[in-house]
Amino acid sequence: MAGQTDQLVKPGSGRGLLDVYGDRFLLKLLVRKEIKVRYRGSVLGLLWSYVKPLVQFLIYFVALGIFLNLQRGTPNYAIYLFAGIVLVNFFTESLSNATRSIVDNRDLIRKIYLPRELFPVSTVWVSAAHFLPQLLVLIGACLVVGWTPSILQLGAVVLIFGMVAVLATGLGLMFGAVNVYFRDSENIVDMIVMVVTWASPVLYVWSMVERVMGPWFWVYQLNPMTVAVEVFHWAFWEPTLKADQMVADTMPPDLLTVWLPVAMLVTLTVLFLGQLTFRRLAIHFAQEL
User: Fold this and answer.
1) Does 4 have pLDDT greater than 60?
2) Which InterPro entries does the UniProt entry name for this protein (predicted)?
């Protein structure tokens, strides 16, 4: 009709992650659906959020802490170990599920149009729902052994959680989109998940790596998950140590002033590249699926 200024919008040409914020209600529905589907027919339900990391912790603690006697040189090794496991599990679960999210929701994507980014983002939120109970267990264990964090350390916990969520979202967007065209992406992500626990100072202390790598230690620090785990240890493990347990290499030099900003920059770059890749490939999702 004359006088109308409405313009046709090309299907699939949205605003990316900004559309996810605009469709928060849909995001909430997808998160609820993911949780219900995952635990349908399960007796324990969300209690698996406690059981899986607990079993993983016990295996590592017995094998490394007791058999290899790593707890002897690392005070409160149980806290050190569990703090790293909780954070890495959040990342690996988010990345794995985000990579499969588009393919797993193929039926919905074929039928209607909605921001495709909703699917990877919703899986990160589901992983966050599993992360929070584990975090509460970690906080409880820290309080038992005398945890006295500073305001800065508490703020660092929130910052690191957000950084890891953004990192998992960026990689999830990238691999989730590529996975529609090449299912090999799932195998690549499986290898990343397998390596990330050992590529970050979860089971060992960072100083062991520095002694081996020497001047090339900075390469190790470029991994955002390495920095994230180190900051988590600084926030949870270090405040549980007594004065006579403190050592000079509790955390790497320049962790907060240099490596944390670098990790955040790398994370934002990954998010940008992931969103760029996703938007370019999302146009033909329905046809490919």
Assistant:
1) no
2) ABC2_TM, ABC2_TM_bact-type, ABC_2_transport
